[in-house]
């Protein structure tokens, strides 16, 4: 880090996470009560795929996830997922706050 002698560390007092939006196709949809998860396959030419080298993200739908313009979610549906995106042990995971028809 610039200005840090000997590559020291900085401890954050707080962080702010921004929601990210991704658009793709659902596969592997599995629900359990009010929760569900699925694989979102992104277009190979999307900005996310170009920057990260990956075209799949695991999406988690919670009971509080807003559904806009969607019938029940199903494999093959095109959706836009918006929420908090994490990189967990090399796997991208998105906790969806909103899912919209894509």
Task: Describe, in plain words, how this protein is organized in 3D.
- With 102 residues, the protein is mainly beta.
- The protein is built from one helix and five strands.
- The longest helix is centred in the middle third of the chain and has 6 residues, at 47-52.
- The model has no long low-confidence stretch (mean pLDDT 91).
In short:
The protein is mainly beta. The chain is 6% helix and 54% strand. The protein has one helix at residues 47-52, and strands spanning 20-32, 35-41, 56-68, 78-88, 91-101.
Assess the beta-strand content as a share of residues. Answer: over 45%
Spatial ordering of strands, largest sheet = 1-2-3-5-4
What is the residue-mean pLDDT, rounded to a whole number? 91
Q: Biggest β-sheet, characterized?
A: 5 strands, mixed, barrel
User: What is the element string, with H for helices and E for strands?
Assistant: EEHEEE
Provide the structure class.
mainly beta
What is the global morphology? globular
Note the gap between the termini: 40 Å
Radius of gyration: 16 Å
